[in-house]
Structure prediction request, 337 residues.
Amino acid sequence: MEPTAKPELIVEPDEAAMVKAVAALRRGELVAFPTETVYGLGADARNEEAVVSIFAAKGRPARNPLIVHVKDLETARLYGHFNDQALSLAREFWPGPLTLVVPLRQDAGLPQQVTAGLETIALRVPAGKTALDLLNGFDGPIAAPSANRSGKISPTEAEHVEEDLGERVAMILDGGPCSRGLESTILTQTGERVALLRSGAVSAEEIIRFLGSEDQLIIHSESDTDPERPVSPGRLASHYAPNARLRLNALEPREGEMMLAFGPDAPEKVIGVNLSPAGDLAEAAANLYAYLHILDETGIDTIAVMPIPDTGLGRAINDRLQRAAAPRPEEEQKDRL
Ligand code: TXA
Ligand code: MG
Prediction:
């Protein structure tokens, strides 16, 4: 390999770096930045060429819309129509790992590629300090999917971004490991109620507690994995996939496997890692992608994954693991993000 052409691709997000990042975004370049969930691949959401280059860098299908990150609710309302319930959810959970899909304003002024031509827009105010500093410095909407190639594991460290997309970005702001480690929860308003489009770092239980009753939240039980009509394309079957195969609900590894363990009952002395020896789901969520990266880098064929309780954050963890374990589509029909 050549010596690195861009020696300072990964930078500490100090004041000088933030000025450079803002300038790069204004020039229409891509800047990877940490959020509390995962690293995002950011571009000026108003700049059509910049937005198109996100899709090219990720190898992402054009019909899969992006999340627009904004600095506050007031800014979000320039782009989407919020009903009372969406407003109250935003006030409760922003800044934070919740994305709201709301009707797109006709005067939003964003290129149609951002929303993949839909009449709705996904908006979020992230909580991470670097993300908020960047949004405040840039003072505009930043379209940002997770900073990984389509279908691959999401990045929770700057190095993950460099490995996957290093050649495509102007810079990577290094905020250390993401504190939540799982993507934002995506909700949409549907009349009187809200529907969960993607489980994530805010648990369904937390949302139900806030809404006041279970009937207020629609959780689709059927799997909407029909690629002809993706409700939220991130829910397609194969996704978040390491190179290794995953064997779920394994109590111990088979010959030649490594283990992704969870909790105090993990078998002793097996080769692998434990997402949370104490059995803490928030800790497991924060470690999930980083540990999948570590196991994958060993070149192992199969990762044996211990069962994870399907409550709270465990639901989002299991959702990701199931997609990571799903049969992979043929390379030529890579319809994943
Ligand atoms: O935590 C996160 O949400 C991270 C960080 C960077 O903010 N972003 C992220 O983006 O996970 P991405 O592109 O990997 O996933 C966004 C999801 C996709 O499943 C996309 O289909 C869905 O949001 N989405 C975006 N706009 C939508 C819309 N108008 N209606 C339904 N789903 C939408
Ligand atoms: Mg993603």
